[in-house]
């Protein structure tokens, strides 16, 4: 079956213009960022396009086209630890948010419920303000420029994300859930954990009572004067509150031991697209499959470039898997992904389908559904967790700083664990 390729086949122009969704492009981006790693701590907060003071690695890390440990190892190979400490910390924020949500999957469900409620409740002036905000017509120049940048490029600088979310919530007084959904719709790195929890953090819901208020002076300083929204922002607003939500951590699902003596198929999802650099790399599989799922795109209302990024990235991962595992690969029909995955597994006549773990989010729901379907055929679905996640997620029960200390004890800050997954 034809697969979307990087050149030509099914690759829309907007994806070519912003990012190339391949592991090779992610590694090249990492290599070109490494020399700038030393200046990152000093320069990273400046928001000046084309944003070459930050790595812009997030779409690649988000889909695990490249790995967190590869990013950490690359900067440690080139610089002393203390010089790149800030960059490593930022990479760890990604893992922290993921681990935090794994301990509290209901926070994602609560977000989806509240989003439905807020969407249904949109009316009157709020509805007009919302329509203006998502089309870059709010009248606040910086906010409108960032809305357009996001739609056009699928990316926003971290500082701009913070300011944008803060203005959305505290100046425009729009529901935070709709802002988070607007980000997820357009970000090439859109991620249930980093996105939902960052919006909650800005709103003052993550650390109760502590919110992030965008200040005009700060925006003027870090945009080199490109914007100066003096007098336009509510710089005094109070944090949001919400009905009680249980934020106590629950036990993580157990990491499963992988039976290696069974006939197996390997299933790829856009949550982890580097199987050849994982603990699965030395296993034998009868076949490898993967494919985009239209219903996931619809459920999250993803903009076309976001689905296209995943589609092409999956095609790239299948090509690499074919070369590495030397077995046939199969592109699953995106119109009925579930039935296609079921048919593929049955056709391969395997006893188990192995997939690199899908964290909290829509893909996890699909994997749960596939699990139930395969069970009827006596085929087990094995979710295999990477060492990076199994060693770090348990530390994400409280705040970031205890988590970072946990990571230090595990050797991740020194790159001691850099070859753990291979
Ligand atoms: C409201 C809001 C929403 C966000 N939504 C997302 C999202 O959906 N997906 C996403 O990947 N990040 C999200 N972030 C975090 C952060 O803004 C992006 O990861 C970062 O801007 C990506 O750009 P970069 O690759 O150039 O980052 P760099 O500064 O070069 O950092 C390197 C890597 O570290 C990780 N990282 C850096 N900062 C953070 C952070 N604050 N939280 C989590 N990981 C971080 C990313 O993987 C990033 O690629 C959000 C932040 C805010 C404030």
UniProtKB/TrEMBL annotation:
Its cofactor is FAD. Binds 1 FAD per subunit. Residues 87-232 form the Cryptochrome/DNA photolyase FAD-binding domain. FAD binds at residues 87, 189-191. One of its GO terms (molecular function) is deoxyribodipyrimidine photo-lyase activity. Keywords: FAD, Flavoprotein, Lyase. GO terms for biological process: response to light stimulus. The keyword NADP does not apply. InterPro entries: Crypto/Photolyase_FAD-like_sf, Cryptochr/Photolyase_FAD-bd, Cryptochrome/DNA_photolyase_1. This is Deoxyribodipyrimidine photo-lyase.
